[in-house]
Design goal:
Helix content is 44%, strand content 18%. The protein is an alpha+beta fold.
Length: 177
């Protein structure tokens, strides 16, 4: 069973660009739109992913995490996000209830999860570690460039950099113990 909703699939645009200061502004715009659309249904809205790390090159797509009480209750949030112009493209109830919506302007991936989701915690840990550990930021930068050079689609790209990401998260978690 595919997680992709009919008519959608993984992107093949693996273009990596230098970090752009406007990505923080793009996130603020998106967070405002999401906040208006969802109100108190959005328990948390957070900028994650490579565009949230100053100095890190990235695909120019803002990753936003939205935490809702129950991601499986799509009726409680999906219509409001759709009305605000976000397009529902992925449904993965087997992976922490994950839902994915896209925005085309600014380009963004909105990841919907429930409270206490370990994936949300992992995203935060990774982002915060890279913001304060330039050696690991450089290691990840090189992994991203190598992964993008391999071509294919975004799922291939993610798989190629996965081990480096896991190693960095392991260091971050171990240092916090």
């Amino acid at each position: 069973m595919s997680a992709w909703l009919p008519g959608f699939g993984p992107s093949t645009d693996l273009t990596i660009t230098d970090h752009q200061a406007r990505w923080a502004d793009d996130y603020e715009l998106l967070a405002g739109q999401i906040g208006v659309a969802l109100g108190s249904v959005a328990l948390e809205i957070e900028h994650v992913g490579s565009t949230s790390v100053p100095g890190l090159p990235a695909k120019p797509i803002i990753d936003v995490v939205i935490v809702v009480a129950d991601p499986d209750d799509e009726a409680g949030y999906a219509p409001a996000l759709s009305e605000a112009g976000f397009v529902h493209v992925v449904r993965e109830p087997w992976w922490h209830g994950h839902r994915l919506f896209r925005s085309h302007e600014p380009r963004a991936n909105l990841h919907v999860f429930g409270p206490d989701c370990p994936e949300v915690a992992r995203m935060r840990i990774f982002r915060d570690w890279l913001r304060t550990h330039p050696d690991d930021l450089e290691i990840y930068r090189l992994a991203k460039i190598d992964a993008a050079a391999g071509g294919g689609h975004v799922m291939d790209y993610n798989a190629r950099k996965q081990q480096v990401l896991r190693d960095i998260v392991r260091r971050a978690v171990t240092s916090a113990e």
